[in-house]
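sry for the spam today, last one i promise. C-alpha coordinates for design, 216 residues
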Protein backbone atom coordinates (compact mmCIF):
# COMPACT_ATOMS: atom_id res chain seq x y z
CA UNK A 1 0.00 0.00 0.00
CA UNK A 2 2.85 2.40 0.81
CA UNK A 3 4.33 1.97 -2.67
CA UNK A 4 1.00 2.61 -4.39
CA UNK A 5 0.30 5.67 -2.23
CA UNK A 6 3.64 7.21 -3.14
CA UNK A 7 3.03 6.48 -6.82
CA UNK A 8 -0.28 8.34 -6.79
CA UNK A 9 1.36 11.27 -4.99
CA UNK A 10 4.11 11.41 -7.59
CA UNK A 11 1.71 11.26 -10.52
CA UNK A 12 -0.12 14.32 -9.31
CA UNK A 13 3.09 16.35 -9.22
CA UNK A 14 4.69 15.64 -12.61
CA UNK A 15 6.73 18.53 -14.01
CA UNK A 16 9.55 19.37 -16.38
CA UNK A 17 12.82 20.77 -15.13
CA UNK A 18 14.34 23.53 -17.24
CA UNK A 19 17.95 24.49 -16.70
CA UNK A 20 19.58 27.85 -17.33
CA UNK A 21 18.34 30.86 -19.20
CA UNK A 22 18.50 29.15 -22.59
CA UNK A 23 15.63 26.80 -21.79
CA UNK A 24 17.78 23.67 -22.13
CA UNK A 25 16.05 20.70 -20.56
CA UNK A 26 17.58 19.14 -17.48
CA UNK A 27 17.39 15.36 -17.68
CA UNK A 28 16.60 13.72 -14.35
CA UNK A 29 17.11 9.97 -14.14
CA UNK A 30 16.40 7.44 -11.40
CA UNK A 31 18.17 4.06 -11.47
CA UNK A 32 16.62 1.42 -9.22
CA UNK A 33 17.73 -2.12 -8.49
CA UNK A 34 18.97 -4.38 -5.74
CA UNK A 35 22.51 -5.05 -4.63
CA UNK A 36 24.50 -6.98 -7.21
CA UNK A 37 22.45 -5.96 -10.27
CA UNK A 38 24.82 -3.19 -11.36
CA UNK A 39 22.50 -0.19 -11.16
CA UNK A 40 25.32 1.96 -9.82
CA UNK A 41 27.57 0.98 -12.73
CA UNK A 42 25.11 2.08 -15.41
CA UNK A 43 24.40 5.29 -13.48
CA UNK A 44 28.15 5.97 -13.45
CA UNK A 45 28.36 5.26 -17.19
CA UNK A 46 25.49 7.66 -17.85
CA UNK A 47 27.13 10.39 -15.80
CA UNK A 48 30.47 9.91 -17.57
CA UNK A 49 28.81 9.98 -20.98
CA UNK A 50 26.89 13.15 -20.10
CA UNK A 51 30.07 14.88 -18.91
CA UNK A 52 31.87 13.80 -22.08
CA UNK A 53 29.00 15.25 -24.12
CA UNK A 54 29.53 18.63 -22.43
CA UNK A 55 26.71 18.63 -19.86
CA UNK A 56 26.89 19.78 -16.27
CA UNK A 57 26.20 16.55 -14.38
CA UNK A 58 25.38 15.61 -10.80
CA UNK A 59 24.98 12.15 -9.27
CA UNK A 60 24.19 10.71 -5.88
CA UNK A 61 23.27 7.26 -4.66
CA UNK A 62 21.82 5.37 -1.72
CA UNK A 63 23.40 1.93 -1.49
CA UNK A 64 24.08 1.30 2.17
CA UNK A 65 22.36 -2.10 2.17
CA UNK A 66 23.32 -3.11 -1.35
CA UNK A 67 25.61 -5.94 -0.24
CA UNK A 68 22.67 -7.55 1.57
CA UNK A 69 20.47 -7.50 -1.52
CA UNK A 70 18.58 -4.37 -0.50
CA UNK A 71 17.31 -1.61 -2.75
CA UNK A 72 19.87 0.59 -4.47
CA UNK A 73 18.75 3.93 -5.87
CA UNK A 74 20.93 6.30 -7.86
CA UNK A 75 19.99 9.80 -8.99
CA UNK A 76 21.59 11.35 -12.08
CA UNK A 77 20.77 14.82 -13.42
CA UNK A 78 22.42 16.59 -16.34
CA UNK A 79 21.82 19.72 -18.39
CA UNK A 80 23.26 23.17 -19.04
CA UNK A 81 23.52 23.95 -15.31
CA UNK A 82 22.53 21.55 -12.54
CA UNK A 83 22.54 22.68 -8.92
CA UNK A 84 21.38 19.50 -7.18
CA UNK A 85 21.74 15.77 -7.88
CA UNK A 86 18.45 14.93 -6.18
CA UNK A 87 15.54 13.79 -8.34
CA UNK A 88 12.21 14.68 -6.75
CA UNK A 89 8.95 12.71 -7.11
CA UNK A 90 7.17 13.47 -10.38
CA UNK A 91 10.31 14.89 -11.99
CA UNK A 92 12.20 11.99 -13.59
CA UNK A 93 12.53 11.90 -17.35
CA UNK A 94 13.22 8.19 -16.96
CA UNK A 95 13.06 5.61 -14.19
CA UNK A 96 15.20 2.57 -14.94
CA UNK A 97 14.07 -0.51 -13.03
CA UNK A 98 16.45 -3.46 -13.09
CA UNK A 99 13.70 -5.58 -11.57
CA UNK A 100 9.90 -5.25 -11.57
CA UNK A 101 9.41 -4.54 -7.86
CA UNK A 102 12.11 -1.85 -7.89
CA UNK A 103 10.45 -0.22 -10.91
CA UNK A 104 7.20 -0.11 -8.94
CA UNK A 105 8.91 1.09 -5.78
CA UNK A 106 10.32 4.16 -7.54
CA UNK A 107 7.62 4.72 -10.19
CA UNK A 108 6.30 7.77 -8.35
CA UNK A 109 9.46 9.61 -9.41
CA UNK A 110 8.54 9.56 -13.12
CA UNK A 111 7.13 12.62 -14.86
CA UNK A 112 3.65 11.39 -15.76
CA UNK A 113 3.41 13.80 -18.69
CA UNK A 114 6.47 12.90 -20.75
CA UNK A 115 8.56 10.51 -18.66
CA UNK A 116 9.32 6.85 -19.33
CA UNK A 117 9.73 3.82 -17.10
CA UNK A 118 12.20 1.28 -18.48
CA UNK A 119 11.66 -2.10 -16.83
CA UNK A 120 13.63 -5.31 -16.96
CA UNK A 121 11.09 -8.11 -17.39
CA UNK A 122 12.56 -9.93 -14.42
CA UNK A 123 11.42 -10.81 -10.91
CA UNK A 124 13.71 -11.31 -7.93
CA UNK A 125 11.70 -13.09 -5.26
CA UNK A 126 13.18 -12.37 -1.80
CA UNK A 127 14.16 -15.69 -0.27
CA UNK A 128 14.19 -14.28 3.25
CA UNK A 129 10.49 -13.32 3.29
CA UNK A 130 7.77 -15.85 4.11
CA UNK A 131 5.26 -16.36 1.27
CA UNK A 132 7.28 -13.97 -0.89
CA UNK A 133 6.08 -15.61 -4.10
CA UNK A 134 2.44 -15.00 -3.15
CA UNK A 135 2.81 -11.39 -2.05
CA UNK A 136 5.18 -10.31 -4.84
CA UNK A 137 3.40 -7.80 -7.15
CA UNK A 138 3.48 -9.92 -10.32
CA UNK A 139 0.97 -7.52 -11.93
CA UNK A 140 3.41 -4.60 -11.74
CA UNK A 141 3.56 -3.90 -15.48
CA UNK A 142 -0.21 -3.91 -15.96
CA UNK A 143 -0.63 -1.68 -12.91
CA UNK A 144 1.84 0.92 -14.16
CA UNK A 145 0.29 0.97 -17.62
CA UNK A 146 -3.18 1.34 -16.10
CA UNK A 147 -2.01 4.66 -14.63
CA UNK A 148 -1.38 6.01 -18.12
CA UNK A 149 2.40 5.86 -17.78
CA UNK A 150 4.75 5.19 -20.68
CA UNK A 151 6.30 1.85 -19.82
CA UNK A 152 8.91 0.06 -21.94
CA UNK A 153 9.39 -3.56 -20.90
CA UNK A 154 12.60 -5.24 -22.02
CA UNK A 155 13.74 -8.88 -21.64
CA UNK A 156 17.10 -7.59 -20.45
CA UNK A 157 18.00 -10.56 -18.25
CA UNK A 158 17.04 -13.07 -20.93
CA UNK A 159 18.97 -11.15 -23.58
CA UNK A 160 22.05 -10.96 -21.37
CA UNK A 161 21.94 -14.71 -20.74
CA UNK A 162 21.66 -15.35 -24.47
CA UNK A 163 24.77 -13.20 -24.94
CA UNK A 164 26.62 -15.35 -22.44
CA UNK A 165 26.40 -13.51 -19.12
CA UNK A 166 23.19 -12.68 -17.25
CA UNK A 167 25.02 -9.99 -15.29
CA UNK A 168 24.97 -7.76 -18.39
CA UNK A 169 21.22 -7.13 -18.06
CA UNK A 170 22.04 -3.69 -16.66
CA UNK A 171 23.95 -2.75 -19.82
CA UNK A 172 21.08 -3.97 -22.01
CA UNK A 173 18.86 -1.49 -20.14
CA UNK A 174 21.51 1.20 -20.53
CA UNK A 175 21.47 0.67 -24.28
CA UNK A 176 17.71 1.17 -24.30
CA UNK A 177 18.03 4.30 -22.15
CA UNK A 178 20.62 5.75 -24.51
CA UNK A 179 17.99 6.01 -27.26
CA UNK A 180 16.05 8.47 -25.10
CA UNK A 181 18.94 10.81 -24.28
CA UNK A 182 20.71 13.54 -26.32
CA UNK A 183 24.12 11.89 -26.05
CA UNK A 184 25.80 10.76 -29.30
CA UNK A 185 26.34 7.07 -29.97
CA UNK A 186 30.10 7.58 -30.28
CA UNK A 187 30.20 9.13 -26.80
CA UNK A 188 28.52 6.07 -25.31
CA UNK A 189 30.97 3.83 -27.15
CA UNK A 190 33.98 5.75 -25.83
CA UNK A 191 32.55 5.72 -22.31
CA UNK A 192 32.05 1.97 -22.31
CA UNK A 193 35.57 1.41 -23.62
CA UNK A 194 36.97 3.68 -20.92
CA UNK A 195 35.04 2.20 -17.98
CA UNK A 196 34.55 -1.52 -18.74
CA UNK A 197 37.54 -3.85 -18.17
CA UNK A 198 38.97 -5.22 -21.42
CA UNK A 199 38.02 -8.85 -20.75
CA UNK A 200 34.34 -7.87 -20.38
CA UNK A 201 34.22 -5.16 -23.03
CA UNK A 202 33.11 -7.14 -26.09
CA UNK A 203 30.16 -8.72 -24.32
CA UNK A 204 29.04 -5.43 -22.83
CA UNK A 205 29.24 -3.65 -26.19
CA UNK A 206 26.97 -6.35 -27.62
CA UNK A 207 24.59 -6.01 -24.67
CA UNK A 208 24.46 -2.24 -25.13
CA UNK A 209 23.69 -2.54 -28.84
CA UNK A 210 21.03 -5.17 -28.15
CA UNK A 211 19.29 -2.75 -25.79
CA UNK A 212 19.45 0.07 -28.33
CA UNK A 213 17.97 -2.17 -31.01
CA UNK A 214 15.08 -3.31 -28.80
CA UNK A 215 14.17 0.26 -27.82
CA UNK A 216 14.50 1.83 -31.28
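last one done:
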Amino acid sequence: MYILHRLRAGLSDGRDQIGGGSGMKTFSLMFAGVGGQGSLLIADLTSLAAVSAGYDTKQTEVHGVSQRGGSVETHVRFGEKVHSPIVTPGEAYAVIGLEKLEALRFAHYVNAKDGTILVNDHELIPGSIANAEKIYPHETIDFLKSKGLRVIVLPASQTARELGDGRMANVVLLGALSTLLPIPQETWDKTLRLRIPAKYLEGNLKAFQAGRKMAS
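The chain has nine helices and eight strands. ok im logging off now
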